Amino acid sequence: xxxxxxxxxxxxxxxxxxxxxxxxxxxxxxxxxxxxxxxxxxxxxxxxxxxxxxxxxxxxxxxxxxxxxxxxxxxxxxxxxxxxxxxxxxxxxxxxxxxxxxxxxxxxxxxxxxxxxxxxxxxxxxxxxxxxxxxxxxxxxxxxxxxxxxxxxxxxxxxxxxxxxxxxxxxxxxxxxxxxxxxxxxxxxxxxxxxxxxxxxxxxxxxxxxxxxxxxxxxxxxxxxxxxxxxxxxxxxxxxxxxxxxxxxxxxxxxxxxxxxxxxxxxxxxxxxxxxxxxxxxxxxxxxxxxxxxxxxxxxxxxxxxxxxxxxxxxxxxxxxxxxxxxxxxxxxxxxxxxxxxxxxxxxxxxxxxxxxxxxxxxxxxxxxxxxxxxxxxxxxxxxxxxxxxxxxxxxxxxxxxxxxxxxx
Length: 409
Prior knowledge:
Blueprint: E1 2-6, E2 9-13, E3 26-29, H1 48-60, E4 70-73, E5 78-81, E6 87-89, H2 99-107, E7 111-117, H3 134-144, E8 148-152, H4 161-174, E9 180-183, H5 191-194, E10 201-203, H6 212-223, E11 236-238, H7 262-274, E12 279-281, E13 286-287, E14 294-295, H8 299-305, H9 308-314, E15 322-323, E16 333-338, E17 344-349, E18 356-361, E19 372-377, E20 382-383, E21 387-388, E22 390-396, E23 401-408
Parallel strand pairs: 3-4, 3-12, 4-7, 7-8, 8-9, 9-10, 10-11
Antiparallel strand pairs: 1-2, 5-6, 13-14, 15-16, 16-17, 17-23, 18-22, 19-20, 19-21, 19-23
Helix pairs in contact: 3-4, 6-7, 7-9
């Protein structure tokens, strides 16, 4: 653990040396993304060969080049405990055990993550949870070479998050292996107030699915986090996995088929980015419909996930973006994140079902009214005319988000 100075203030942050944790993690999750062989993806499924194929596709499709590093297996891998109480993976899906798979991920310069649960059983598969096995599970994760551990919160009757998560955190650090700890108690116990002492990231809301009502709700809940708890190095509020561009090609999470429009998927990515959330997408990276699996992303997914200008406003050390006006009563909602180079990322977010028009007064960013800025549209990838005092007006279509980077002139 270390003290980090951010914008002149000393703040506690949890740096235990885990890789790719100083900034919000970028990566991929198995959640709705994998199926056996050439079969359609199945919710809550993973196996060794399909994960290796996905790692290769992850690189071939340019995700690693764009800065993504994390490969996460969700509630899909564990089988049981042996006679000594240690976890072991499904022998049919992982016949060689977990360590060779972790080694393969590491050989590609990537980070390997696994899921567990704080209760007696996991949330979806009913697999063994970590309750009262903190040190055993942490030790086996370290032995396998795990870099990132997500701990869910199902089947935890009689337990409290604030008392439970520190036990696993301490057990992980006791192993001597640096592992990122991602707490997943769905924001129920205000983890942003105590999480920085025991974890590098934590879910701040319930599960996100690829439908507009879910996306809008997560953004609304992020806006409610107190400004003093809005993210810093090694301490990030996690808005949950991205469902970017998922339609029928992905499995259905929690019984909900992803069905957002292209505009809504861009808003999902934009608002996760300006909120400094981890950006971990769950989507198939292989098309197996023709009997053989080939790396694939749709044109929409490439446009969104490989937008390095949006990624850049996420990958910074400053506190996450916040609403500047009266959210959600003012339309469009104006959000801003101060970036470490002195510029600002600004989002004009329209959660309404009709177009809205709005402008940004630069004094709301703490700049004098005489300030001139160069606005850059991060989705159009073009500079707009230099503006003095006010940026806009912009008309924002329903459920859309206009994202600008403002640089002083």
